[in-house]
Amino acid sequence: MVVRKVGKYEVGRTIGEGTFAKVKFAQNTETGESVAMKILDRSTIIKHKMVDQIKREIYIMKLVRHPYVVRLHEVIASRTKIYIILEFITGGELFDKIVHHGRLSEAESRGYFQQLIDGVDYCHSKGVYHRDLKPENLLLDSQGNLKISDFGLSALPEQGVSLLRTTCGTPNYVAPEVLSHKGYDGAAADVWSCGVILYVLIAGYLPFDEIDLTTLYSKIDKAEFSCPSWFPVDARSLIYRILDPNPETRIRIEEIRNDEWFNRGYVPVRLPEIEDINLDDMNAVFDDPEEEQANEHCSNEELAPLILNAFDLIILSQGLDLSAMFNRGQDSVKHQTRFVSQKPAKVVLSSMEVVAQSMGFKTHIRNFKMRVEGLSANKTSHFSVMLEIFEVAPTFFMVDIQKAAGDASEYLKFYKNFCSNLEDIIWKPPNESSKSRITKTKSKRR
User: Fold this and answer.
1) Which residues touch 73 (CB under 8 Å, ≥6 apart)?
2) Residue 446: pLDDT over 50
3) Can 132 be counted among the known catalytic residues?
């Protein structure tokens, strides 16, 4: 058997796959240490204008060396690939633990929360705000310790700028001020997300969980939630202080550290010795004249869905009759389906994420692609779907949905259920819309 090597690393099985990257198990042949090797295609990163995002993510992970943050070892590149070598975490996601075990004990919840606050506080001390804290981005090592991962949406505020302005993160965990589009303090927004996580750990479910995005945002904005009667009283008190919709009066991390409930059994983490941040490997990977030229061309453009030209549309519609593209028969739905929306692409993406999560699936987003995955209805096999948003015209966006793993009949059920919860964003031809309105009007009159 031929063993593949990248530098000093022996590359093994695939342990994860995303829209823009594949993650493989690998072993350092010099030390015997196991690592996770994230492999990215160089041309794809340039094409999707992701160079600055990847650079920022690498820089941040080199900056935040902490026991409760996934460690980045080094970055290697070939002519066509970029290899990011990360700490290999064996315990899976905290999300999976909650799904399989339900709500955790008070002591276990507190232990994870203490580690989360330690890690987040350290990130903030380095000027790093995660902005997508949720159980899916919290991994567990072999000792059961928390490891914060996925710094793809993290921010490093520019010099002299105190407020962040990009709306990002997973809707159920996002602070109300982030949704207001008026600028927000990254530290206070991360604290809110930590509070939602603490609630989920103790309760086993979300404090804010609505299929309709407008209702969800309204409840978040007013911090409209309640704790079950069996919640520990002092934990409940802390959660209400964290989930304060006013970021000015919301509890800060230093106050959380002084909270009596938080301090029970708390052992502050021992920080590693300060290391110099060496960016030579990152600069060697990205300082490519061809790449710089491509970046210069698009540096001022905001990330947007890929635009489909006429040729793409003809290929997708399997001929010149474009109606087939948006109106497929049931038999052709088995592996690939599409719908069109006139809502902004970001609204479409957020709505799909909320609906998928409300159906019990995990979501992973990169730009305008989303992977939805979880167990099949009978809980015996893996089910996965890929969704991508394309711009068809300035006010029309097409969502292309493909089955990645699982049974075809299960996919059909997923698609129908998924779309039935997205009626507010799915565009229908005028004649179909009018029929729908008539039906609804009649039912109201009854």
Assistant:
1) 35, 85, 86, 87
2) no
3) yes
373 neighbors 351 (Cβ within 8 angstroms) = no
DSSP string for residues in 265-283? T--PPPPPPP-----HHHH
Mean pLDDT of 18-37: 90
- The span from the CA of 48 to the CA of 350, in Å, is 20
Helix (H) or strand (E) holding 331: none
DSSP letter string over 51-73?
Answer: HHHHHHHHHHHHH---TTBPPEE
Which CATH number is associated with domain 306-445?
3.30.310.80
Distance separating alpha carbons of residues 150 and 70, to the nearest angstrom: 9
Instruction: Give residue for tokens 């399997």.
Output: 318
Q: How many CA atoms lie within 13 A of 280 on its CB side?
A: 2
Looking only at the bridges linking them, the beta strands covering 396-405 and 336-341 are: antiparallel
Q: Strand, coil or helix: what is 383?
A: strand
The single-letter code of the amino acid at 396 is F
Q: Whole-angstrom distance between the N-terminal and C-terminal Cα of the chain?
A: 72
Distance, in Å, from the CA atom of 435 to the CA atom of 428, rounded to the nearest integer, reads: 10
Look up the CATH architecture of domain 4-88. 2-Layer Sandwich (3.30)
Q: CA neighbours within 13 Å on the CB side: how many for 179?
A: 23
DSSP labels, 418-429:
HHHT-TTT----
Looking at domain 94-263, its CATH architecture is Orthogonal Bundle (1.10)
407: confidence class by pLDDT, cuts 50, 70, 90: confident
342 and 368 in contact (C-beta within 8 Å)?
Answer: no
Residue 133 has pLDDT above 50, yes or no: yes
Domain locations in the chain as residue ranges: 4-88, 94-263, 306-445
Catalytic option among 41, 52, 121, 132:
132
